[in-house]
Known about the structure:
The structure holds two protein chains of two kinds. Chain A is an alpha+beta fold.
Amino acid sequence: MSQGQNGAELRLVTPGMAIGPSAGKRIGSGAVAQNEEIIATKLGWAREINDTVSVDPINSSYIPRSGDLVVATVAEVRNNLWFMDINGAFQGLLPMSLAPWKVEFGAARQHMGIGDAALARVQEVDECHNVVLTMKGVGLRRIKQGSLLTIPVNHIDRIKGKDNLTLERLKNSSDCRIIIGQNGKVWVDGDAEGIAWARKAIQIAQDHGHKNTFDAEISAHEKNAPNRGDV
Amino acid sequence: MGGYGDVQLLREDGLRLDGRKLDEMRPVTIEAGILPAADGSAIVTHGLNVAVAAVYGPMEAHPRKIQRQDRAVIDVRYNMAPFSTSDRIRPGFNRRSREISKVTAESLESVVLVERFPRSKIRVEIEILAAEAGTRCAGITAASVALADAGIPMRDMIVGVASGKVEDTVVLDLDKAEDNYGQADLPVGILPNTGEIAFLQMDGDLSPEEYNLAMEYNFKAASEIHEIMVDALKRRYDGGGN
C-alpha cells in the first residue's frame, strides 16, 4: 500500500477487482459500475478524488485526442499526404494542405520522406479513430536533429511534474531542449553529453515512473548532470 | 472402471498416481512482464505445462475485412512448440490449435472492453513450451495476465481450470495419464470475481451430480489460481504508487 500526494492510501487493483460501493460516487477512467459496486477495468492504482473513483493505469496505449502535441514519424508518403506513425493504434494523416510548406501535388516526398520526424498537433479525431494531424501552428516543424526517445504514455504527467517543474529541472540539468509529445515520444536536442544524460533520465521514468521512489531516483541522477550549476 | 482397458489411475489409499488428493491441483506459478518487446506478457507453469502469452496492440486491424466498425477484434494464435511433447509436433496450425485459438478468442472477447477500440485488433500469441494435459487452460490464464499487463481494459480476468472423471471418480486438474485414460474432461474459463463462465467444453460423459462436483472443484481451483494471478501482477509493479 502506498501513499498518494495528498496522503490518501493508494491500492493496486487488477481488472475485475471491486474498489468499493458505487453509491454516491462518480466513476472515473479505468473503472465501471457493476451491481452497485465499482469494478476496476485496468491494472493500476485506485484513486478517489472529490468523490470520483478512478484507476491510474500502470500501462496504457496512446489514445489520440484533438489538440494533442505529438512527435510523429513518417510511415508512408502519397502524392498529396503523409501517413504518420503517432505511436497509437492508428496512423495519423497529414494532408499537404495542413503542412507548413507550399507543396505541389506529387512533391510531398521532397519535404518529408519515410522515417522523418515532425512535431505535429492532432487536428481532429473522428468516432472511427481516423486521426488528422496539422503542422500549421507555432513551433510545429520537421525535426532535423536531436534524439527521439519513448516513454510510457501513462508516465508523461509524472516526468513533467506539477506545473512542469520536473521537466524544467531536466531541461536545466541536461542543457537540452526537451519536448514531450502526448503520444509518449520525446524529442531531445542538445549536445551529446546532455542527450545521453536525458536518455538516462527517460530510462528512469520508464523503470520507476510508477513507483514512489521516482523523485528520489531523478534527484540522484541530477547529481551526475552535465549542467549541475543550474540545479 | 472406465476409460481405456485396465489402466489404474487411483491408488488403493484413494489418492491419485502422483499423490494428489481428488480435489488438489498441480502447482501453479505465474510471472508477468517477461517479454520486453510485447505490450504485455506472462508465463504460466501449471504442473509440467509451460505456457507463454504475449499481447500486442490495440493496433489497426489488417486485413481491413476483419475490421469491425464498433469494436476491436481479438486475434488469438495458440501454438504448441514442436518440442512441447514427447512425440515431436509438426510445426504450424492444425485443427486442434485452430479450435483452441477460436474458443480462447471468444472467451477473451467476453471480458475485454472491445467497444473501446473500434476498428482495432488486439493480438494474443500463446505458445505452449511444455505440455502435460490442460494446455488450453494454462494458455487462457497466461493470456488473461498478459492482457492485464498490457493495460487492456477488462471487466474481469479469466482463469482456465479443468476437472474430469477417472475410474468413476471426479478429480480436479487432470494430468497426462488421467487425461489420456480417464472418462471425462471438463475445461472451463471462469471469471473469478463474478463467478461467470466464459467458456466450457466437455469431453466424455458426466452425470448431473458429477458435473456439479466437477464445477465445485473448478470454482475452488479458479479462486486459488486467481490469487496467484493477482500476486504475479502486483509483484511486477512492486513498490509502485505515486
